[in-house]
Automatic annotation (TrEMBL):
Name listed for the protein in its UniProt record: Cytochrome oxidase subunit II copper A binding domain-containing protein
Domain of life: Bacteria
Entries under InterPro entries matching the protein: CcO_II-like_C, Cupredoxin, EfeO_Cupredoxin
Record keywords, A-Z: Membrane, Transmembrane, Transmembrane helix
PROSITE patterns for this protein: COX2_CUA
Classification via Pfam families: Cupredoxin_1
Domain Cytochrome oxidase subunit II copper A binding: 35-127
Residues annotated as transmembrane: 6-27
SUPFAM superfamilies associated with the record: Cupredoxins
GO cellular component: membrane
GO molecular function annotation: copper ion binding; cytochrome-c oxidase activity
């Protein structure tokens, strides 16, 4: 009887942890005080960002985690903020943006990367 009770408790813990992990990775950004974490990726062989429009709150520092799925270098540039960061192949790059006023801030690939380079762009929408 005691064994089945222990097994039930372990199963409940596993389910709860699984739900928490799924909830965490299901959100595009997680706000933690004055810093907002955003997850993005460079989609393999498409010359596109996912997502290509990122909505964040105003007056908070933004930490963007960008995973480059490609086998070649890309860059993440936000001209209005003076941001230009390389995103090495098959690695995550973390770019920190300062608190921003409401508005739209275009971003683009800042490294000439191939045939779709000119259209690899998006925007940060600050609300």
């Amino acid at each position: 009887m005691e064994n089945s009770s222990s097994v039930s408790k372990i199963a409940i813990v596993i389910v709860v942890v699984g739900v928490l992990i799924a909830a965490f990775f299901g959100y595009r950004y997680v706000s933690g005080g004055d810093v907002v974490d955003v997850t993005m990726r460079v989609k393999k062989m498409t010359w596109r960002w996912d997502p290509d429009n990122v909505v964040v709150p105003a007056n908070k520092k933004i930490r963007i985690h960008i995973f480059n799925e490609d086998d070649f270098l890309h860059g993440f540039g936000v001209a209005a903020l003076g941001i230009d960061a390389e995103t090495p192949p098959l690695k995550e790059t973390v770019v920190t943006l300062p608190p921003m006023q409401p508005g739209e801030y275009p971003f683009h690939c800042s490294v000439i990367c191939g045939e779709g380079h000119a259209t690899q762009e998006g925007k940060i929408v600050v609300q």
